[in-house]
Design a protein that fits this description.
single chain; alpha/beta; Rossmann fold; six-stranded parallel beta sheet; 20% strand
């Protein structure tokens, strides 16, 4: 993988499908609007010099982000999608359709960073820290409340990262 500086890198954090008003129904108009918003931000970041996009590969918004970056890569030169995988087997308890989507996205990524070879109580947090520490910009789909997205945003704020929030 080509070396990218922190200033050329952004990462993504967002709600899982269970935390979205439409759940897993990606045909919902609100989901389509969110995907357009994410695509607009990704395009603006590319125009600002971002080339490496790190995704935590969770269900929901992370997968939207990875697919959008993949589409950007097909149109614009120099785009790198990095899959930040919290642990081997992250997808084991997901539905077959979600496992297949996950595998397709991981296989299509330009780089893969595995944080832990097995699940640990803090592997998700370590994945999030890796993403934030590697990036100058954090893109977040956040509608309030505590949880992984909140904690990642708090970490980004403490580290002085630029934060771009996309409302649902």
């Amino acid at each position: 993988m080509k070396e990218y500086s922190e200033s050329q890198t952004c990462c993504f954090t967002g709600h899982r499908a269970s935390g979205l008003p439409w759940g897993t129904n990606e045909e919902d108009g609100r989901c389509a609007a969110l995907k357009r918003s994410i695509a607009g931000v990704v395009e603006e970041l590319y125009d600002a010099g971002i080339r490496r996009y790190i995704c935590g590969m969770a269900l929901g918004c992370d997968m939207y982000f990875a697919e959008i970056v993949g589409e950007l890569r097909s149109r614009r030169p120099g785009v790198c999608l990095e899959a930040a995988i919290p642990c081997i087997g992250q997808e084991e308890r997901w539905s077959e359709a979600n496992r297949e989507r996950y595998r397709r996205l991981v296989e299509g990524a330009d780089a893969r960073t595995v944080i832990s070879h097995r699940y640990t109580f803090d592997c998700m947090e370590k994945r999030n820290r890796y993403m934030v520490e590697s990036s100058s910009v954090v893109v977040a789909v956040y509608s309030g409340g505590r949880g992984g997205t909140f904690n990642t945003l708090r970490m980004a704020y403490k580290l002085g990262r630029e934060i771009i929030e996309i409302d649902i």
